């Protein structure tokens, strides 16, 4: 039987097996939710990079550029880290370069996997349906917050496990923990996460609407996948 594992933060990635595995990267608040939204609204490619300097280099080549640090847009870049920014007509058919505090770093660290997918609650069902057709083990890589574990990405991992529990065996205790947390909180995720650290950060910025939006399930039938150095929308 195939196995599904959860890496709770990229700082623990060296303890997990990436080779011969499909990695699903989750940065629910807000990088991977932005990426999924962008592809749903017609973006052509997204190049995830780890540093602001790399993002500037892509910007100089004519890419729209998104840079976020500590939940704020970096000066000099066109796009921020709110999914509502990616509902604009300007992104249709565009090539975007993106760097974020946690999510893009997690993607760049996963390049040795068989496939790297972008996951969020927004495309949960699409990711689950695709994985059921694949012969490989799966690891959910939670982007976390600056090397620390966070609740929202762990809950996404648990939600994906819940969709796949009849097709995959749970590999490690981290997968069991994630699944149990999701089962405890799934009836009211917004309330369940009320005291989570990143919820508090975003609320201080006055963007409750981003929180509510990113916790919605199954809005989009799109699965971004890393091809070379760019994310593209997989044909479903």
Automatic annotation (TrEMBL):
Keywords: Hydrolase, Magnesium
Catalytic activity: (2R)-O-phospho-3-sulfolactate + H2O = (2R)-3-sulfolactate + phosphate
Enzyme nomenclature, EC number: 3.1.3.71
Transmembrane segments: none
Coiled coil: none
Domain of life: Bacteria
Record-linked InterPro entries: ComB-like (IPR005238), ComB-like_sf (IPR036702)
Cofactor names: Mg(2+)
GO molecular function, one term: sulfopyruvate decarboxylase activity
UniProt record similarity statement: Belongs to the ComB family.
Family annotation (HAMAP family): ComB
The name this protein goes by in its record: Probable 2-phosphosulfolactate phosphatase
Gene that this sequence comes from: comB
